[in-house]
Amino acid sequence: MIELPCVGESLLSLIPQRAPIIMVDKFRGLEDDISLSNLTILDDNIFIEGQSFTESGLIEHIAQSAAARIGYIYKLKNEEVPIGYIGSVDKLTIRSFPKVGDILDTQIRVLQEIFGLTLIYAEVYIGTTLIASCNMKIFLGDEKK
Amino acid sequence: MNNEQIIENIREVLAEEFEVDIDTIQPEAPLQATLELDSLDLVDMVVLIEKNFGFTLTTTDFQEVKTFQDLYSLIIKKVSEKES
To answer: ipTM higher than 0.90?
Structure first.
């Protein structure tokens, strides 16, 4: 059983990454099949350059948000969590780069699951402002977390 | 939409999306090789078809799809099921 919101050690059971590359700090579950996750940008985040969170950091955050979704679903089924890999990132749009102290609020919607691949659409908000979006293809490997 | 229109629609959409000469899209031509699709592109093709025709496809649907004719037959069948 996973309690929501999922944070700390419980969150780490959903994703394979470990510090200092953890780019999700809260998983809030699924609403209408859309997963909800957060990251507070701290000044010691490895993806900070100057005072801004980088494009690479945003992509990693989206990927980990998708991984947390997969981990959560597998945990609900009492199955081992598979490790997901990014196949591609398409249609990436970044409207603004987050700053230290911002809280990313990310929604992941699955567009298609076929041929062992999952195509997701991600939207990253700060408050009510959409700051980034993309499509991402993820494939699940045979390895378990 | 009749079968000829469905096939023409598929050819136009695929030629535009995957940037190939529409004349290379012939019924017996191999789908993946002609469109130079890798596994990631296949997902894009599925999403494109679903968006254009308004149904969903599964991996099982594609088990026998090797040529464009196979794809046309699959889509015509799905359109027919949707309309019935």
So the answer is: no
Measured distance CA(A77)–CA(A113) in Å, rounded: 18
Domain assignment of residue B49, given as a range = 3-83
- Counting the structural domains of chain A, the total is 1
The stretch A48-77 carries a mean pLDDT of 95
H or E segment and range at residue A60: helix A55-76
Mean pLDDT of B55-83: 94
Chain A residues inside the 8 Å CB shell of B65: none
Instruction: Retrieve residue A79's tokens.
Output: 């199955």
Single out the residue of A103, A108, A114 nearest to residue A31, CA to CA: A108
Residue A110 Cα, gap to closest chain B Cα (Å): 12
Kindly compute the dihedral angle of the four CA atoms of residues B25, B31, B37, B42, in this order, to the nearest 10 degrees.
110
Residue ranges making up the domain that contains A114? 8-144
A91-116, pLDDT tens digit by residue? 999 999 999 999 999 999 999 999 98
Query: What is the rounded distance in angstroms from the CA atom of residue A6 to the CA atom of residue A58?
Result: 20
pTM exceeding the 0.80 threshold for the entire prediction? yes
Q: Which residue of A has its CA nearest to B58?
A: A114
